[in-house]
Amino acid sequence: MAIFLNENSKIIVQGMTGSEGTKHTARMLASGANVVGGVNARKAGQQVEIGGKTLTVYGTVKEAMAETGANVSVLFVPPKFAKDAVIEAIDAEIELAVVITEGIPVHDSAYFWAHAKAKGNKTRIIGPNCPGVISPGKSNAGIIPADITGPGKIGLVSKSGTLTYQLMYELRDIGISTAVGIGGDPVIGTTHIDALEAFEQDPETSLIVMIGEIGGDAEERAAEFIKANVTKPVVGYVAGFTAPEGKTMGHAGAIVSGSSGTAAAKKEALEAAGVRVGKTPSETAEIARELYKAL
C-alpha cells in the first residue's frame, strides 16, 4: 500500500516536451514510474524519445487518458498557462494532478481549487509549487530524487521541498511508505490534514513525520486534527525558529503576525497534541528513529 500513488499509477506529463518536463520525465522513468505519455496541444500526435522510451504527445488530457488509461498528471506548465492546464485535468476527471509549477498567481490557484471542489473533488490536487509525491519502489510523480531512500514504514508530509529530501535521506535506514511535498503557497490542493488522514488509514505506514514552516495556521489546524483523529505516532519539525517576527521568509505563505504563525506557537500546538517536535531536521529524524524502534 501507499497513499495517492502506487505501482499501478499511470502518469502523463502536461508540458512534457519543455526542458523541465523532458528532464524530469526522464528521471521519473529512471526511477521506475510508469509514464505513459504527454500533453501539449501544439505538438499533438508527435512521438518523443525520453529516457529510452518512446512516448506519444496527446492534444488533451482527456485524449491521453482515453488512449493510455492514465490516472495521474504531473504539470510542468509555465505560470501563465498553469490555471488552464489544471482546469483541463480537472474537467477530464483525472484522479491526481501534481502541480510542480512555482509562481502561479494565488488568484489562479484559488480558482482551480474552487473548480475542483465544484466538480465534486474527483481530482486530488497536490501543489502548486511543490516537489510532488513519491512512493519509493512503486512510483514517482514530480521532482523528488528517487535514489535517496527506499521503501519503508514512515509516511512523510512536508511544506518544504528540500526538507522533504533531507528527511527522506536521514531516515533511509527505515525507509518511506510515501513522501508528499504539499508546497508552501497560501492556497494548495492537498493539506497536511489530508495527508495525515491518508497515512492514518494506510496499513503500511507505521509512523508519520510532518514538516511545517512559519506563517499561516496550517500546522495549528493539523495539531487539532492529530489530537482528534490520529492514533499513529507523529513527529514534527517547523522550519523558521530563527526567523525574525514580521518578516516574509521564503515561501509566499510564510508571513508571521503576532504569535500566530511563529515556529514557537506551532511547536506548542503540536506538542499539546502529543507530537514530538525536533529543533533541527537531524534531531527530528533521531526522534522518529527512537519512536519507530519502540513500535
Radius of gyration: 19 Å
Approximate strand percentage: 15-25%
CATH class group of the largest domain = Alpha Beta
Q: What's the CATH architecture name of the largest domain?
A: 3-Layer(aba) Sandwich
Task: Please report the number of helical segments.
Answer: 9
Q: What proportion of the residues is helical, as a percent range?
A: 25-40%
Strand/helix succession: EHEEEHEHEHEEEEHEHEHEHEH
Largest sheet: 7 strands, mixed
CATH topology of the largest domain, by name, is Rossmann fold
Principal-axes shape call: globular
Which structural class fits the helix and strand makeup? alpha/beta
Head-to-tail CA distance between termini: 19 Å
- Write down how many β-strands occur, each being a DSSP E stretch of 2 or more residues: 14
How many structural domains can be distinguished in the coordinates?
2
Query: Which residues form runs of ≥5 with pLDDT under 50?
Result: none
**Averaged pLDDT:** 94
Look at the structure and name the CATH superfamily of the largest domain. Answer: Succinyl-CoA synthetase domains
